[in-house]
């Protein structure tokens, strides 16, 4: 089905199932510990041996020799594969560093061996017996500030609108500041894990924890140079991803090599202390933001230049992603620099680009509001736009940013905020209030599904994943609504490479794309059923199929009917800017003597089209807000510049927000629909919930203390 014009009135407008709060279908399986995660496939691979990885102890250079002789003789060891025994493997999709093979070390904790043994403890003990001799690479400069100074002002701007120099000359107020965001790790609950059966070295089954079945399936074929037909990938339950599991990683590669070597299925989990340097992370950023405004608060110039790092061929973190489009402004200059550095791989993490960019831009907006002596809510309202400011012929498909700010201000009680930095106190705590705008693009991808009507039950098969987001549930709601059936009569089968290719889960495109794909498949099924019944355009409602004289219960359709289709996105969408919008309001307390910041309450307002399921959507947003607390106050990958690795590479040293850090959270969804976005008029919300949160906290901390911190995290040593 091609989506080739804005959605008109349709089945989803009746709001019977789509749009209603519904508890997670997979909830009971998860909370009772019975959902089969990739490392726990005792159902599918009960005899799996244990794999344990060995990781490089240098940042870059090469291996001169490895001695695994003693390890091979250790108790319980079935097989060992070292990187020197294997030709460098091809790289899968978006793998920047090689995952395994050869002597070259491109980053710290690169996988260099896998040990397979009868028990986990035996494998781990044997891995520790392998000795490695390295040759360090040449000295490298890992100073991102210095790199930024070297490239600043060079290269063609990515966006250049108007005479920006003149705008800054003539402005009533100008701000010009540097901002820093640190490297961040996804730190999802479940590490990267796979169980692989490649016992015969021919057909391969991969039970893994991954967001993107089809990409992963193709990457495994590329990496091992085998026919994709021989590979099956399943990932029905995923304990969080946040972007860390978009691509094939070493867990699956090592389990496969170990399985082939041992002639038995092998399961392997990357140990937590290896995840951060072995897999990917969000690059640190250095950002310079200059804003120029009129005395009436209108932005005249927005100048944003940023740098991040990656291994050669990577993408870094584009902190300027939102700047061309979010706020009005006559002139604009935007430039993102990507600096090659031999550090662990950088790639997407929840809201890649905007999450880091808004951490800086939304502080800058606060600073400008203060320079203009304006209410920061009002300042943002004045600078709203209904067209892409870098290309004014392109309107937004649907944008209610102003309403987000107004509704949020009301719900939060913004009128009663502290108006003098450092001027409000509750015992030993200085109280501050902050606001930030939120923006995240609304991407969609092609997405397919198969719909099968069998014995009164509807079965939906698609390779879509549920990474803890609620895909099972919203897809069942979509299918039930489209077929006029009860949700209880829908069986969801997800995340298997044998099923039609979906969008997968990433970039907050999963919900809008995959629900559209299920809708397309169900519409194809309706057509087939109608054809079988010999009727035209029947209605499917209340469990019945009706057309003219025909009126039969879906349960009475005897033969099994199956149809497959995918949603394709028509070019008409290119005539619109599609985004999701929000506003975050935060109250913090900063301890007057220690400088510790605690978040006391949070309000988020989201404008993301039709909300398919308010429970699962709210969970996404409060999860994003929790992640934003970590980003604001504690998360910081500590770089060892001499050796090129992150020193705090576990959950003891890398501190994410925990339950005790999370205050009262209020989430308000605007009652909007975006007919340009998808047939359901829905957009994603899972990344929007993070965007802007950290800046709202930093702004509140400034409001509490009068101390402006532009470098994250806002820790107590910076509150001096
Ligand atoms: Mo997302 S960072 O594309 O999982």
Automatic annotation (TrEMBL):
Looking at the keywords, is Translocase present? Answer: no
Keywords, alphabetical? Oxidoreductase
**Protein name (Swiss-Prot/TrEMBL):** Xanthine dehydrogenase YagR molybdenum-binding subunit
The family database entries (InterPro entries) matched by this protein are listed as:
Ald_Oxase/Xan_DH_a/b, Ald_Oxase/Xan_DH_a/b_sf, Ald_Oxase/xanthine_DH-like, AldOxase/xan_DH_MoCoBD1, AldOxase/xan_DH_MoCoBD2, AldOxase/xan_DH_Mopterin-bd_sf
Asked if the Swiss-Prot or TrEMBL record annotates the protein with the keyword Iron, the reply is: no
Recorded GO terms, molecular function?
iron ion binding; xanthine dehydrogenase activity
Q: What is its EC number?
A: 1.17.1.4
Organism the protein comes from: Martelella radicis
Per its UniProt record, what PANTHER family does this chain match? ALDEHYDE OXIDOREDUCTASE MOLYBDENUM-BINDING SUBUNIT PAOC, XANTHINE DEHYDROGENASE
Please report the stretch or stretches of sequence annotated as the Aldehyde oxidase/xanthine dehydrogenase a/b hammerhead domain: 32-138
